[in-house]
Amino acid sequence: MTTRPREPAPGTPAPGKLALPELAELKARRQPIAMVTAYDAPSGRLADAAGADLILVGDSAAMTVLGHDSTVPATMEEMLVLTRAVTRGARRPLVVADMPFGSFQVSDEEAMHNAIRFVKDAGADAVKLEGAGPMLGRVQALVGGGIPVMGHLGLTPQSATMLGGFKAQGRTAEQAVRLYEDALALEAAGCFAIVLEAVPAPVASRITEALTVPTIGIGAGAGTDGQVLVWHDLLGLYEGHAPRFVKQYADLAAEITKAVGAYVEEVRERRFPEEQHTYGMPEEELAIFEEALEDVAERR
Ligand code: KIV
Predict the structure, then answer these.
(1) Does the pLDDT value for residue 240 go beyond 80?
(2) What is the pLDDT of residues 250-266, one digit of tens each?
(3) Model pTM?
(4) CA 55 – CA 62 distance, rounded (Å)
(5) CA distance 300 to 298
(6) Span 155-179, average pLDDT
(7) Packing angle between helix 173-189 and helix 136-144, nearest 10 degrees?
(8) Which sign, positive or negative, has the C-alpha torsion 34, 38, 41, 46?
């Protein structure tokens, strides 16, 4: 008798999953790639139903979900919980887990250990890490170990302090050339795609033309191969100040406040729950129950 594994082994694409090489083919066909962040099973499921190609379990979760002021406090344990939830919800999109600050900077071994946890324990298809330069060796080590890596250049929020805050990068010719060279180096190191964040549109376009692998832009203009937005920003769920590159497609914070407000009011006015929300019991059981209560009262 042959037995079949219930889940595909790590590293084996699940049935219906977008194949990683398809991303480069989408670029070659000039077909835009849609990526969105997600942080739990419902958002993973909804992003899948909406047709997203890639889901990023971003360390932006530290701000959008966990209430921090920056992405730096996100921990491996938190990111693993969120990634596991997203991979339970999403089927077709490739799920990319964002390696949190401190999880890949120290050594190749530690980066490998943490990336393996994302793939093996949390079901991620790939990982993303910020930066180039000293991180090129890290990318090579992970890709050499069989883990697909997405790069991230431009405004890299984990190093926002060193970059002088959350502001656009590559706005001088010198910085733009460095970004261009970093992107080429990340591709050579084995990245399957590169996020370009808050980069002038002409710079992002030139980088995109120079690479075989897709670029995914956020605040990088319309010339990149794909776009990414943060779930809470695009749905109007995040109450902080949104950067200029955010387009808000819904105002769910207002919708949610309205719905929860209506519920609170109905509870206070005893208008909820109604008959259809409650369970009854057979008359005879109710009568026995009432009698039993009398006995209980007598015994006390
Ligand atoms: O953490 C995140 O959500 C990101 C995207 C903004 C690219 O890195």
Answers:
(1) no
(2) 999 999 999 999 999 99
(3) 0.93
(4) 17
(5) 6
(6) 92
(7) 20
(8) negative
Q: Catalytic residue among 110, 181, 197, 269, which? A: 197
Q: How many residues does the chain have?
A: 300
Pocket of ligand 1 contains residue 123 by CB under 6 Å: no
Give the list of residues 6+ apart from residue 72 with CB closer than 8 angstroms, or none.
62, 101, 158
The response to whether residue 35 sits with its C-beta less than 6 Å from ligand 1 reads: no
Query: What would the two tokens of residue 191 be?
Result: 């990245």
Q: Is 40 in the pocket of ligand 1 (CB under 6 A)?
A: no
Q: Which residue CA neighbors atom 1 of ligand 1 most closely?
A: 58
The larger pLDDT score, comparing residue 47 to residue 160, is at: 47
Ligand 1 centre to CA of 148 (Å) is: 17
Q: Residue 137 contacts by C-beta under 8 Å, 6 or more apart in sequence?
A: 108, 189
The closest residue, in CA terms, to atom 3 on ligand 1 is 58
Averaged pLDDT for residues 170-183: 97
Interval 75-87 mean pLDDT: 98
End-to-end CA distance of the chain: 64
Residue nearest to atom 8 of ligand 1 (CA): 58
What is the sign of the dihedral through the CA atoms of 132, 188, 128 and 252? positive
Rounded average pLDDT over 74-88: 98
Kindly give the residue spans of alpha helices, DSSP state H, lying in the chain.
Answer: 21-28, 41-49, 61-64, 76-89, 108-116, 136-144, 173-189, 201-210, 231-235, 252-268, 283-299
Q: Is the CB of 60 under 6 A from ligand 1?
A: yes
* Ligand 1 contact, 228 CB (< 6 A): yes
Catalytic site includes residue 174: no
Ligand 1 touching residue 224 (CB < 6 A)? no
For 94-125, the pLDDT digits (tens) are 999 999 999 999 999 999 999 999 999 999 99
Cα(58) to centroid(ligand 1), Å: 5
Distance CA 193, CA 13 (A): 18
